[in-house]
């Protein structure tokens, strides 16, 4: 016998409700319904489009199938399933969470085949995982503890693999399957570069797919939303598009990109697979991304990009002026424009400033809300001022990057030169030294060699002691 029930309360912690609110009361259109089937049950869900809470298609189902007939009784949101078993019996169960009618239809043949020959699928799964371990556990000097960590990493990365769905047209890998803001098929470039670098060694096909997923939404010439950002890679893509792109998702994010370790990741896939077609596929995408960094994030033209924020409704007025909110006491006022911002900062008559572009710039660096971008709590700031510092020391300066037509293309947070290392990695280590012989592009090789030589010298001047060897 199996029994169970659907959750009723909206919120709970350690099994205890946090309020009297119910799921049905908050989302009346959800309409969850348990139905009995010949070999199990299914739960169907109504359509809900609550951007920050719940997004369902109205076609999704959760199905449970067993390898022997069962009789299921339904009582509201509760069920009891029974099967008649004589003697020792081995049974098999499939669990499927299906999000669209197309997925529901496609899955049925797969379920029938699994239950018809379960031993075949179990053996195939075991062989597949053994192959992952064979490919991934190749370090002869690894200690038992290190090997256990490696196995766990392989399990986690493969476990976070998600099939194509919604706006994500390729297999992808998510940072988590349990964290609310990191699950589903949400895909970040920052995570992808590192995930794919590792997966290249034991699951290279999915490593490639994860990278392809990120670049599938790279901004192309003539883009209707941000034509000034050709080559740009969004910070986050997901099942549901943003309203600007015709969807109703809230997590989709084009306010910033992430540090570009793209070529480093792509090259590791090539090092493992020796797939020259892979290089040819990725090369133009990486060049476009590299050029976007120099065009839209290198404000002073010295070859070292800054981190910043795109032109976006969260950051700018319709005419492109930077938005910021001045808070003092229980009052707050939203203003716009760099000149106004400078005047407010100079007068200092505020308790705090909220600047959406500042937040996005920190996201773009991969160091969310880092101190280098001016994020400091009140207690820390008070101690700093008491020790002789000035509050203005923590005020971030901004600059406007403009497109050739002089329209605002983005905002730069002038807080450091952290983008230089990743750009040098893209320009020199990958394109110049390794790729050009394989791709046969001598003129482009010359271009990147010249850029790389200049950027490497600047990098050494900014970061490295004169007596310290440069490893690039």
TrEMBL record:
- Name of protein: Glycosyl hydrolase
Membrane spanning stretches: none
The beginning of the lineage is: Bacteria, Pseudomonadati, Pseudomonadota, Gammaproteobacteria, Enterobacterales
Q: Which UniProt keywords apply?
A: Hydrolase
Q: Which organism is it from?
A: Escherichia coli
The terms under GO molecular function for this entry are: alpha,alpha-trehalase activity
Q: Where is the Mannosylglycerate hydrolase MGH1-like glycoside hydrolase domain?
A: 186-380
Gene Ontology biological process terms from the UniProt entry = trehalose catabolic process
Entry annotated with the keyword Hydrolase:
yes
State the PANTHER family in the record: TREHALASE (PTHR23403:SF1)
Q: Which gene encodes it?
A: ygjK_2
Record domain Glucosidase YgjK N-terminal: where: 2-130
Q: Which domain of life is it from?
A: Bacteria
């Amino acid at each position: 016998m199996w029994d169970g029930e659907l959750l009723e309360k909206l919120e709970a912690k350690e099994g205890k409700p946090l309020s009297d609110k119910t799921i049905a009361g908050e989302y009346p259109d959800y309409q969850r319904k348990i139905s009995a089937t010949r070999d199990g049950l299914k739960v169907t869900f109504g359509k809900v489009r609550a951007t920050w809470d719940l997004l369902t298609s109205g076609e999704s189902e959760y199905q449970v199938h067993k390898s022997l007939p069962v009789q299921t009784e339904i009582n509201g949101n509760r069920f009891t399933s029974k099967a008649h078993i004589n003697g020792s019996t081995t049974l098999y169960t499939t669990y499927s969470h299906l999000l669209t009618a197309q997925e529901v239809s496609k899955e049925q043949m797969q379920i029938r085949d699994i239950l018809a020959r379960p031993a075949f699928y179990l053996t195939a799964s075991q062989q597949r995982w053994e192959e992952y371990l064979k490919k991934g556990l190749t370090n002869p000097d690894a200690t038992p503890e290190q090997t256990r960590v490696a196995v766990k990493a392989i399990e986690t990365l493969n476990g976070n693999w998600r099939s194509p769905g919604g706006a994500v047209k390729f297999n992808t890998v998510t940072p988590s399957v349990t964290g609310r803001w990191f699950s589903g098929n949400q895909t970040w470039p920052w995570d992808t570069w590192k995930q794919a670098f590792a997966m290249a060694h034991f699951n290279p096909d999915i490593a490639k797919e994860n990278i392809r997923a990120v670049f599938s939404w790279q901004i192309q010439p003539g883009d209707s939303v941000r034509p000034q950002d050709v080559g740009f890679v969004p910070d986050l893509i997901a099942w549901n598009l943003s309203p600007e792109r015709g969807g109703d998702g809230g997590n989709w994010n084009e306010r910033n990109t992430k540090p570009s370790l793209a070529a480093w990741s792509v090259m590791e896939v090539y090092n493992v697979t020796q797939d020259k077609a892979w290089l040819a596929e990725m090369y133009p995408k990486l060049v476009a991304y590299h050029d976007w960094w120099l065009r839209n994030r290198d404000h002073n033209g010295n070859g070292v990009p800054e981190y910043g924020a795109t032109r976006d409704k969260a950051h700018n007025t319709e005419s492109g002026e930077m938005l910021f909110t001045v808070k003092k006491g229980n009052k707050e006022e939203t203003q716009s424009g760099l000149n106004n911002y400078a005047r407010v900062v100079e007068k200092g008559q505020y308790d705090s400033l909220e600047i959406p572009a500042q937040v996005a710039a920190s996201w773009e660096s991969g160091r969310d809300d880092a101190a280098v971008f001016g994020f400091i709590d009140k207690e820390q700031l008070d101690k700093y001022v008491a020790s002789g510092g000035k509050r203005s020391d923590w005020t971030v300066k901004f600059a406007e990057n403009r497109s050739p037509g002089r329209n605002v293309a983005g905002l730069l947070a002038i807080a450091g030169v952290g983008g230089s290392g990743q750009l040098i990695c893209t320009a020199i280590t990958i394109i110049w030294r390794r790729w050009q012989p394989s791709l046969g592009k001598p003129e482009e090789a010359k271009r990147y060699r010249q850029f790389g030589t200049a950027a490497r010298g600047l990098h050494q001047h900014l970061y490295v002691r004169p007596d310290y060897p440069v490893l690039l």
